[in-house]
Design a protein that fits this description.
The protein has 380 residues and is an alpha+beta fold. It folds into three domains: 75 residues, no CATH class; 128 residues; 112 residues, Immunoglobulin-like. It contains four helices and 13 strands. This is FAM65 N-terminal domain-containing protein. Belongs to the RIPOR family.
């Protein structure tokens, strides 16, 4: 025991001499990091008797003394914004970049396409294609339609020339606002003319395709007649079946093209002007007018007042032009609940209504022409 005591005493004296030169050192190191000062404190603490009794083999413990180093940067209390995490599981500080969403950004919304303005409003009627084509009738309607489109082009071209001439004449002595309005009208008219030209080219394209299918159909019809009168053999029967198939296909194509052309005919805007009669119209009389145009119907009622003025419950109607149908007009005089007298019924041709300017139409209701129906028709 005395030997161990002298050993520990010698060890203590040696450690004491070292700590006299080193001691407990505490100094401050000031560094500048990321724009702020941090104070670092270092302390050395030595324990002499640490792990003295932790001897496993009966000998002295030679474990080195441990140094505790505490590094703490001096923090400044500054207000820092905290933002909600994008995953909604915590908070994020400004240390980490995040995607900034615009305040006015709106998500993409699937919208229905707006209805574009259409030249000669293409018909959205649900009339099915005809089962039997009528090429002769379509030729007449096409010629009338083409003539009407050319008259439309001529009228608007004259308007454009007149506006351009007026703009040139008043360019020096007119106000700037007046010239601006004239220039705007000229541009609108020119755009309308281009749309008319495009519509006319579309009509011509459909008619050319229709004529091609008609020629093919006529050829297939001749082949069917030829194979029908020929000797019945296996090859003749197969050829006849092919000819019948082609004839049916060309007929369907003609019906589809006829329907497409019908959808490009525009609209008839009809305005009721009244009935005209010499001695037939009296004050207090009531009349019912029924118009039928294909599947389209228009029924209106009116009466004759004391001053001769006519009052009708409906005055305007829009009809979609058809290729093969005629406008049917029926006029009935309403005398009592069960006593109605049919004044007259007539069918009217509509291909003459393709005109650039509004026109007033007088329809003879009866055979003698004593009662006429006056209508104002505008083709758009």
């Amino acid at each position: 025991m005395l030997q161990y005591s002298s050993y520990f005493k010698t060890l203590w004296e040696r450690e004491a001499r070292e700590h006299q030169t080193i001691g407990v050192v505490s100094h401050t190191v000031t560094t500048k990091a990321c724009g702020r000062q941090s104070v670092w404190h270092r302390a050395t603490v030595h324990s002499v008797y640490e792990n003295i009794n932790n001897r496993g083999d009966g000998g002295p413990s030679r474990a080195l003394s441990t140094m505790s180093l505490s590094v703490r940067p001096a923090r400044r209390l500054t207000s820092r914004s905290i933002t909600r995490s994008q995953s909604f599981t915590g908070v994020n500080t400004n240390d980490k970049p995040y995607r900034s969403l615009s305040v006015f950004s709106t998500p993409g919304v699937s919208r229905k396409p707006s209805r574009a303005s259409r030249m000669f409003t293409m018909s959205t009627k649900s009339n099915p294609p005809p089962k039997v084509p009528q090429p002769e009738r379509l030729d007449q309607v096409y010629e009338a339609l083409k003539k009407g489109l050319h008259s439309y082009l001529q009228v608007h071209q004259m308007d454009s020339d007149s506006l351009s001439r007026q703009m040139k004449e008043s360019k020096r002595n007119s106000r700037l606002g007046f010239l601006y309005e004239l220039d705007k009208q000229v541009k609108v008219t020119e755009r309308y003319i281009r749309r008319l030209e495009f519509h006319l080219s579309k009509i011509e394209e459909l008619y050319e395709a229709y004529c091609l299918q008609r020629r093919l159909r006529d050829g297939a019809n001749k082949m069917v007649k030829a194979y029908t009168t020929s000797v019945s053999s296996k090859e003749a029967k197969e050829s006849l079946a092919e000819a019948n198939k082609g004839y049916k296909e060309y007929t369907e194509n003609m019906c589809m093209l006829e329907n497409d052309l019908e959808n490009h005919l525009g609209e008839f805007h009809i305005k009721m002007k009244g009935l005209a009669g010499f001695a037939r119209l009296c004050a207090g009389d009531q009349y019912e007018i029924f118009m039928r145009y294909g599947r389209q119907r228009w029924k209106l009622r009116g009466r004759i007042e004391l001053n001769g003025r006519q009052v009708w419950d409906s005055e305007d109607m829009v009809f979609l032009p058809l290729v093969s149908d005629f406008l049917s007009v029926k006029v009935t005089e309403l005398k009592s609940l069960a006593n109605h007298v049919v004044v007259g019924s007539v069918s009217c041709e509509t291909k003459d209504l393709f005109a650039a300017l509004p026109q007033t139409v007088a329809v003879d209701i009866n055979d003698l022409g004593t009662i006429k129906l006056s209508l104002e028709v505008t083709w758009k």
